[in-house]
Amino acid sequence: MTVNSKQRFIRKILLMALSFGVLALMITATGALAHERNTLVPRGHSEYTPSPIPDRVMLMLTASPHISQAVNWRTNAEVDQSIAQIVPADGRPGLHRDARTVTGNHQSIKTENGQAHYHAVTFTDLEPDTLYAYRVIGDETWSEWFQFKTAPAQDRPFSFFYFGDAQNSVRSHFSRVIREAFMQNARPAFMLHAGDMVNLREGNHDDEWGEWFDAGAFLNAMIPSAVVAGNHEFVDRPFRLQRAISPQFQPQFTTPQNGPEGLQDTVYHITYQDTLIVVMDSMNALYDDDHAKAQAEWLDQLLQKSNHRWVIVSHHHPIHSVSVGRDNPPLREHWQPIYERHGVDLVLQGHDHTYGRGSSAPLPDSNRAQHNGPVYVVSVAGPKMYMIADEDNPNMDRMAEELQLYQTIEVSKDRIHFQAWTAAGKLYDAFAIVQDEKGQTTLDNLIPMDRPIHRCTNPDMPESDRCWNGKELISSPNH
Ligand SMILES: [Fe+2]
After folding, report:
1. Are 283 and 230 a contacting pair, CB within 8 Å?
2. 29: which of 338, 366, 398, 477 is 20 to 30 A away, CA to CA?
3. CA 353 to ligand 1 center in whole angstroms
């Protein structure tokens, strides 16, 4: 190599290194900016550092919630023991005297908020339909005593909450939704989160998880949950060539681990009395056809064996999309035929940042129709709002833009009564699936008469396909 070509070579290498450096800085800056704008945590402030006191206490549904209950919590790295105490609740303060001590395990995770231990304990051999008190250990301290109720063994009416994407400005805007749901309807049997609970897909975005746990606060520790993994629960590796579930997801959400091989953290089923609840992983299904097929086969076998009166399925991406530019054909190809063949009753979804409810065949003009196949619902709980693609969408009987919503779903022997409520507690949509003795279902359309379809009202829409980004809502008072 001549001196000149050597110099050119070195210059080229230096130029490449510089380009990479600039690119890395841009990626970091973009991440930091997005991070800064999506939470209420001021720049440079550590709001969510793990401490000796347990936080992020989270009850998770097991496969058999009438006899067992899982709990997760977080502490700093000083707490090596994962210990909880549980006792049937009564009015006396000496709960610890008769409490049973249960040991579990923990995982250590380092985030921008420091090293944390994520603990998991499962209470077993519980009595059905019983109020329990429990607490979890910290470093020379405990959490407060929380209370929860196990599922009844016998078939009895129950209700649960279903939330679409919280995702953006979670503490600022999702908190009022989950809290209003609770204020209007105390002690639901459980809560279902249909994915995209947080937003950032770079790094481990621990402040966003901190905000999500703050939004639900003590409700998370007293009402069991089931969680769906959405696309934003997956972290993109550099240049988005690979993806991995958020590092906190499995350690903070114990799932029943009864799904297909390799997908047990995000695919599972729960039997709540005579209702089968199935959680699917649409993110992996849409990335890889083999994952879609594996879940389809697993579900087909599960439903062949099932003799539950009701079957409710939840995944993040919708079978029938509502919003501009959205469509997920692989889910219709691989999953929808199984839902229809086995008579799934209800499919609860998110992702589109709009509201949509309908079925594969539109309802006739009369408000009651013989009904085969599931009712599909898309909803959104957080403030990011997209635009609906088509007001005459043949798959939708009810739609909305720009409404933060929560849903209450009452399940009884002969009826599922579904209601969608705005964050202000106003009924926006309702229907009932009624099942007769032969298993034939009828759909009652119960849309409130005085509520026309809600369209975007924001005069400063950030883009033509979205009403709100969700992050512009929390810029600091000085900006
Ligand atoms: Fe999504």
Report:
1. yes
2. 477
3. 8
- What is the C-alpha to C-alpha distance for residues 81 and 68, in angstroms, rounded to an integer? 21
Residue count of the chain: 479
CA distances from 33 to 27, 28, 199, 212, 468 (A): 10, 8, 13, 19, 18
Note whether 405 and 377 are within 8 A (CB).
no
How much is the pLDDT for 27? 44
Q: Which residues are placed with Cβ below 5 angstroms of ligand 1, an ion? A: 196, 230-231, 351
- CATH T-level fold of 55-149: Immunoglobulin-like (2.60.40)
Q: Which CATH superfamily is domain 158-445 in?
A: Metallo-dependent phosphatases (3.60.21.10)
Which residues are CB-neighbours of 428 under 8 A, at least 6 positions away? Answer: 355, 398, 400, 403, 405, 420, 421, 422, 448, 451, 454
**pLDDT over 50 at 164, yes or no:** yes
SS3 399: strand
Q: What is the pLDDT of residue 201?
A: 75
The contacts of residue 291 (CB under 8 Å, 6+ apart) are 263, 281, 284, 285
pLDDT of the residue at 35: 43
Q: Which of 161, 170, 254 is nearest to 212 (CA)?
A: 170
0.85 exceeded by pTM? yes
The token pair that represents 330 in the structure block: 């692989």
How far away, in angstroms, is 196 Cα from ligand 1 center?
5
> In this model, does residue 15 exceed pLDDT 60?
no
CA 107 to chain centre: 22
Q: What is the pLDDT of residue 364?
A: 65
Lowest mean pLDDT: which of 213-217, 280-284, 358-362?
358-362
The model's pLDDT over 294-339, given as tens digits with 9 standing for 90+, comes to 999 999 999 999 999 999 999 999 999 999 999 999 999 999 999 9
Ramachandran area for residue 336 (φ above 0: left; ψ -120 to 50: alpha; else beta): alpha
